[in-house]
């Protein structure tokens, strides 16, 4: 019972933390912030790995493998495309100094 | 001490990296490093999970390899103009992944119940599974519709029917009822479980179809938030803190972006979700008048004589892929001794920050990007305002009561000495509201493909 309370506790604190962290974002960063945070939501890969790696029976394996694939697309694609976008922003910052 | 005992600490480290990564992502100087930090956090979380005992890696490898290939290909090949579709699609994948995690856990519980390892599913876990399926399902199907609308595979107009909200409410109620059934009596309700999946998928479609193209930034931000919450719910299912922390961070950031977008349109979230802009058009005022067109040649003459120019890009610039041409024109104007600025409305384009990404791709200097509230007070001193495929965000009808756009903060291009509007045709914008700007005495319409028009002006410049 206690562990559930703890999970909810963590959840509530994390929500508040998230709101505090991102309350002021310049609008030119909205797209990278979105695709970057989208990559973070690929954290369900943890659950997917456990299902694919420890599951017994074909149903668990299929569900797990599919989940791993989708989460991995999210993680890999999300981080890479965010980096690609931010590289363009950075390029400009370099120009400014020059 | 076994190797498994360090896993929780690795998860804590991963969570800290996500937090710092997200914090740095909200500042342009540190954003790229922030993204890198958060990627390291993800790697750490993945490695930690693989350290658990009793894992077989065969299928993990298959899935990880396929996912990575698709991910790398998508990230490399995607055009910057198509970012909204891609983010929409990825939101959906995230939601579906969480749904599948919930499903796998449900299946495990069913199997254990079946062979008598446990005699009832733990209530907390069952509630969490229900939430994961519901949020994950809505995120997935909603994102697919958003993707189809953004990619032009589906008409971007809102789809409305009578009693829509009643139907949506009933489907939601049904999904919740089915979820409650699972929680109350967990054994052998696989059909009911599939029913929850189906209901949540239908619900996702239903809540996304009434939302029009111009409201897409709000929906994408909202679905982004949902994809985080789905991961968070999956965290409750498998009792894992790192999922809960990462998921809630994403959920919170999505909610903030959503509210920023709503504010930029002066509308409430409920209004965006349920009202279906365009539905109110019939009650709106209509504006008529004669639009004056202009040739690329004359546009060049006006721009050549101007000492201050403001570009206002919109979705049309993205469609025409005109950002590089626009920048080239901007450079020529600057070389001509003209002050050039780019004014981006927060909801211009189809996702938050869409225009900024395109202008960044075209290397438009950061100092030339100005916010509407900074440029509006000095608009009367601007010689030429060039509107490139934007419509609703420059529609003066927003200042008049009784129009669908009433109250939305706009860029006051009609106050500039001359306003040139690049547009493919004289049709109304996505909101379906006539734009009196087109008929204003100081407005000239340059009709045609935006990229082609800009290029013609550029070549006029070069010939002279």
Structural features:
heterodimer; A: 98 residues; mainly alpha; 4 helices; flat; disordered C terminus; B: 464 residues; alpha/beta; Rossmann fold; 2 domains; 6-stranded parallel beta sheet; 16 helices; 6 strands
What is the strand and helix layout of this fold?
The complex is a heterodimer of chains A (98) and B (464).
Chain A: H1 2-21, H2 30-40, H3 45-54, H4 58-97
Helix pairs in contact in A: 2-4, 3-4
Chain B: H1 7-25, H2 31-50, H3 58-77, H4 83-114, H5 123-150, H6 164-184, H7 190-208, H8 216-237, H9 241-264, H10 269-275, H11 296-305, E1 308-313, H12 315-320, H13 323-335, E2 339-343, H14 354-361, E3 369-370, H15 372-375, E4 384-388, E5 418-423, E6 443-447, H16 450-463
Parallel strand pairs in B: 1-2, 1-4, 2-3, 4-5, 5-6
Helix pairs in contact in B: 1-2, 1-9, 4-5, 4-8, 5-6, 5-7, 5-8, 6-7, 8-9, 11-16, 13-16
Written overview of the protein:
The complex is a heterodimer of chains A (98) and B (464). Chain A has helices at residues 2-21, 30-40, 45-54, 58-97. Chain A has 98 residues and is mainly alpha-helical. Chain A has one domain (27-97). The termini of chain A are far apart. With 464 residues, chain B is of the alpha/beta class. Chain B folds into 2 domains: 78-275, no CATH class; 283-463, Rossmann fold. Chain B has 16 helices and 6 strands. Chain B has a 6-stranded parallel sheet with strand order 3-2-1-4-5-6. The chains are: A mainly alpha (98), B alpha/beta (464). The interface between A and B is large, with 83 and 112 residues.
């Amino acid at each position: 019972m206690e562990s559930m309370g703890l999970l909810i506790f963590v959840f509530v604190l994390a929500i508040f933390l998230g709101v505090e962290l991102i309350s002021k974002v310049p609008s030119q960063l909205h797209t990278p912030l979105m695709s970057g945070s989208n990559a973070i939501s690929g954290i369900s890969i943890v659950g997917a790995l456990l299902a694919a790696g420890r599951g017994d029976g074909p149903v668990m394996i299929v569900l797990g493998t599919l989940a791993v694939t989708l989460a991995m697309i999210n993680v890999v694609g999300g981080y890479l495309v965010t980096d690609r976008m931010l590289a363009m922003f950075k390029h400009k910052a370099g120009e400014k100094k020059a | 001490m076994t190797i498994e005992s360090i896993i929780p600490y690795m998860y804590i480290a991963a969570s800290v990296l996500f937090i710092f990564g997200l914090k740095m992502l909200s500042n342009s100087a540190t954003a790229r490093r922030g993204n890198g930090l958060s990627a390291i956090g993800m790697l750490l979380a993945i490695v930690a999970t693989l350290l658990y005992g009793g894992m077989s890696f065969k299928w993990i490898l298959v899935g990880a390899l396929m996912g990575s290939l698709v991910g790398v290909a998508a990230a490399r090949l995607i055009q910057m103009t198509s970012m909204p579709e891609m983010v929409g699609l990825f939101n959906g994948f995230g939601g579906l992944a969480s749904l599948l995690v919930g499903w796998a856990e449900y299946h495990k519980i069913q199997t254990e119940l079946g062979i008598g390892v446990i005699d009832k599913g733990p209530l907390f876990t069952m509630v969490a599974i229900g939430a994961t399926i519901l949020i994950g399902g809505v995120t997935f199907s909603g994102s697919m519709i958003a993707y189809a609308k953004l990619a032009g595979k589906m008409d971007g107009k809102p789809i409305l029917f009578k009693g829509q909200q009643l139907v949506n409410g009933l489907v939601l109620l049904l999904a919740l009822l089915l979820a409650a059934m699972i929680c109350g009596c967990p054994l052998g309700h696989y059909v009911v479980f599939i029913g929850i999946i189906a209901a949540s998928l239908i619900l996702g479609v239903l809540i996304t179809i009434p939302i029009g193209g111009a409201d897409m930034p709000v929906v994408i931000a909202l679905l982004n938030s949902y994809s985080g919450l789905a991961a968070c719910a999956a965290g409750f299912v498998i009792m894992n803190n790192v999922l809960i922390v990462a998921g809630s961070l994403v959920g919170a950031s999505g909610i903030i972006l959503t509210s920023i977008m709503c504010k930029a349109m002066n509308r409430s979230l409920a209004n965006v979700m349920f009202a279906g802009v365009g539905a109110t058009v019939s009650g709106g005022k209509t504006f008529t008048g004669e639009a004056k067109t202009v040739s690329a040649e004359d546009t060049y003459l006006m721009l050549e004589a101007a000492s201050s120019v403001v570009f206002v890009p919109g979705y049309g610039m993205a469609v025409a892929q005109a950002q590089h041409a626009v920048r080239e024109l901007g450079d020529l104007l600057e070389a001509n001794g003209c002050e050039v600025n780019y004014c981006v409305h927060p909801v211009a384009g189809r996702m938050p920050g869409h225009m900024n990404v395109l202008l960044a791709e075209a290397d438009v200097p950061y100092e030339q990007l100005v916010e509407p509230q900074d440029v509006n007070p000095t608009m009367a001193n601007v010689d030429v305002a060039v509107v490139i495929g934007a419509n609703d965000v420059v529609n003066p009808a927003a200042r008049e009561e009784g129009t669908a756009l009433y109250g939305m903060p706009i860029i006051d291009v009609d106050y500039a000495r001359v306003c040139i509007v690049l547009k493919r045709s004289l049709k109304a914008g996505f909101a379906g509201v006539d734009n009196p700007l087109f008929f204003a005495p100081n407005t000239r319409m340059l009709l045609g493909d935006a990229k082609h028009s800009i290029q013609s002006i550029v070549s006029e410049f070069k010939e002279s």
